[in-house]
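seq as requested:
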Amino acid sequence: MTRLSVNINKIATLRNSRGGNNPNLVQVAKDCESFGAEGITVHPRPDERHIRYQDVYDLAKIVTTEFNIEGNPKEDKFVALVLATQPHQVTLVPDALNQLTSDHGWDTIKEQGYLKDIIAKFKAAGIRVSIFVDPVEEMVRAAATTGTDCIELYTEAYAREFAIGNKEKGIAPYIKAATVAKELGLGINAGHDLDRNNLAYFIKSIPFIDEVSIGHALIADALYLGLENTIQLYQRAAKAR
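struct tokens:
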């Protein structure tokens, strides 16, 4: 069954907009878990515009489900943070400095040597590793030779096609990429622009997805529907078969 990991970056953005500690990020993480989330995801960036590095230390102490930290391992500070906090999973994302949001996966062919080295470092510390990839068969095959445990399929292209009524076209490359990943023994996660409208079709089409990480859409829905209700709606969509 597909796990739902809630990305709480947007909660931190709201808190930071006024200073102080309202909303309380740690309490929100606890509440997400009590409402049914099977993981908590954060993506700290060097400018700490949402998740602060101290938040990661604080969350590492209280998350009881799966703690997943996303970020660019080419930032030495990020690598040190992950090794110090020992999350269950680290998801490696090739973000540029000051990038607004993630918008592409790794070139697992050109970056093969680098990825092997950094993945080995995290795995030696007992941390499961996932790497962000586009739904391209060649990139998935090359990912499988880096030593990573999992891939996370970057789903923005799927979401874009779904929104304009082209769901079959949108899902096709993801089915192919996920099937290759499964054949190669990789765990398969997915994330970016998944929402309560497009999630169920994605999961029904690829029922062996291990985990989805969802933040922006889920938190936006919670403004209208309430956090507990929203998490349960997403849980039902993630369990669609």
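The radius of gyration is 17 Å.
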